[in-house]
């Protein structure tokens, strides 16, 4: 069992950070803050295979699970990140059960799948069954077509769960990205997705984008919730520090200077 599966087995919710660019300390800071997993974004981020392999190696001894988001169910990229030690893969833009089945197959060796054998980390061992068992496969529901095929996708054997992309879902439904968290139709679709995933016995995940939205989605029953990327966390921390500094300077000026 991987750290990802262990976290899900021991908690109602697991909270995630997100990394979109090469970083030395990002995963370490998420781990130190108490996050349960960190996602590495190969779909929208500025990460290549070498970057992901380095980041996965750096997290090997950290108390945090790892997931990698990939743009498709292409078995070669999925196999490479799993060979490098990813605990989970999140496959984007899945719209039908065939795509979901291909994502699962990419994480399984023959005869159940099409994954090629080639572990890169000695610590993972060389037992195909053990290597398979530590991998959690998630597919993303983030389009109207995916929403229409939700029941069929949830029925695909081998999935650990489904992960909602609210912004793309809103766009696909004809709304603006900002409507993802406020428009009644999008919110109703998100709630329906969560209920269907849970009823199928799978893990319901979502990309929240903030702590407040993460709390909202946790109350609604989502279990795997990504809160912020390293760039968002840096921006918020930097803004808070600047605000504190400006505030202290103003208060000192109003008092006539520092003593």
TrEMBL record:
The UniProt GO MF terms for this protein read: aldehyde-lyase activity; metal ion binding
One Pfam family name from the record?
HpcH_HpaI
HpcH/HpaI aldolase/citrate lyase domain location? 28-234
Answer yes or no on keyword Lyase.
Answer: yes
Ranges annotated as spanning the membrane: none
Give the similarity note.
Answer: Belongs to the HpcH/HpaI aldolase family.
Protein's name according to its UniProt entry = Aldolase
